[in-house]
Amino acid sequence: MLTTPPVLAAPTPKEPMLLYIAATSRVVSTVIVVERKEEGKALLVQRPVYYLSEVLSPSKQNYPHYQKMCYGEHFAAKKLKPYIQEHPIAVVCTAPLAEIIGSRDASGRVAKWAIDLAPYTIYYQPRTAIKSQALADSLVDWAETQYLPPAPDFTHWRMHFDGSKMRTGFVAGIVLTSLKGDKLRYVLQIHFAASNNVAEYEALMHGLRLTKELGIRRIRCYGDSDLVVQQSSGDWDAKDANMASYRFLVQQLSGYFEGCEFLHSNGQVERANGLILSGIKPRLVEPLERLAGCWLDELPAVLWSLRTTPNKSTGFTPFFLVYGAEAVIPTDIEFDSPRVTMYTEEEAKEAREDGVDLLEEGQLLALSWSTIYQQSLRRYYNRKVKPRSFQEGDLVLRLIQRTSGQHKLSAPWEGPFIIIKVLGNDSYYLIDAQKSRARKRDDSGKETERPWNANLLRRFYS
């Protein structure tokens, strides 16, 4: 077949065409052909018009075989749209694609493909001739043999580095992979304020120093930051002075190696992030988890701190208001305050008796200070409060409650209205000032409607 390859044919307008599909675990191939009668041949001859082949991505390799066949049809309709729109297409296959794509129970990607294929004139027929199908199968086999996984590199050590910003600071993770595939992991913490790019540079520099100490001569460095990788390799200029200094240090370290390359990582740096997490979790997360159920043990210390802290509203500590004297706190003992160093039993007893006598006075003073504090809060929050009250006979406007027929330029108030009766809680009965004579009133003289609150009224000035 390689010595006599098929010659591609040009279809005529509206000529029916056949579509052959073949699929394996990693490749999907399609061939679109025309079937016509030629001189000197008794049977119809199939001539290929176009053929396609795609190596499936890892996610598509997990498709079931029938979905790969459906994907091949969708793939051909997408790539060969001019042919599919102009010509009626017959899909030749042994798989029940018509039942799969035309099923009402189809869901997910199959339903999406069915919607995309609905506008085209496509029908299905069983396979009878195998010549064109052999061409599709050969394309699959050829692509299968040409798809080879990349050979591992056994000449350079590999280093993946990454810097991350955490709540407690910056950390850097490094993963060194030897020629045999052994991995060496290293985590460090950065104890100064830094940006993400600085953290990346710190991880790279520590990784190069570690590699130099191990005596490694050839290294490939994979980083997640494209800026750091491009600046370190010399492709980009470092305009920032801080970045330029880091770049100079990296170039000095890289001059030690016989071969040093800087490459952008393709996602493998996530392992370094996992390493960072594995180093932080035992230090931060696990201690907090161990103390999560011990809050009862810490409660007395917390309550003691609250009881010995002066309150802003009273000016005294809760301990003083109960016992008439301030408590001796640990800082007084630790730093030898005069209260501790000058302590005598006789003076302490006398001070205790005086404190008990003055306790009631202190409590009354705390009560007065608390009242003053609350009044100051009330004045602060009532600064912008404007009292609104009306008397009988006042003219007011009422806020429009209905929204039908209103637009952004409509007036928000209607009226004027006359207040004819004042109720408690700032409520008022109203009557229309222009139609007061025509409106009906009840025996009490008020309008036969509900009362209105002062928040919905404003004074009208004629």
UniProtKB/TrEMBL annotation:
- Entry GO MF terms: nucleic acid binding; RNA-directed DNA polymerase activity; RNA-DNA hybrid ribonuclease activity
* UniProt superkingdom: Eukaryota
Q: Which SUPFAM superfamilies match?
A: DNA/RNA polymerases, Ribonuclease H-like
Please report the name of this protein according to its UniProt entry. Answer: Uncharacterized protein
Supply the alphabetized keyword list: Endonuclease, Hydrolase, Nuclease, Nucleotidyltransferase, RNA-directed DNA polymerase, Transferase
Q: Which Gene3D superfamilies match?
A: Ribonuclease H-like superfamily/Ribonuclease H
Domain Reverse transcriptase RNase H-like: residue ranges: 13-120
Provide the RNase H type-1 domain boundaries: 171-265
**Which Pfam family name is an example for this entry?**
RVT_3
User: Which species does the entry assign this protein to?
Assistant: Triticum aestivum (Wheat)
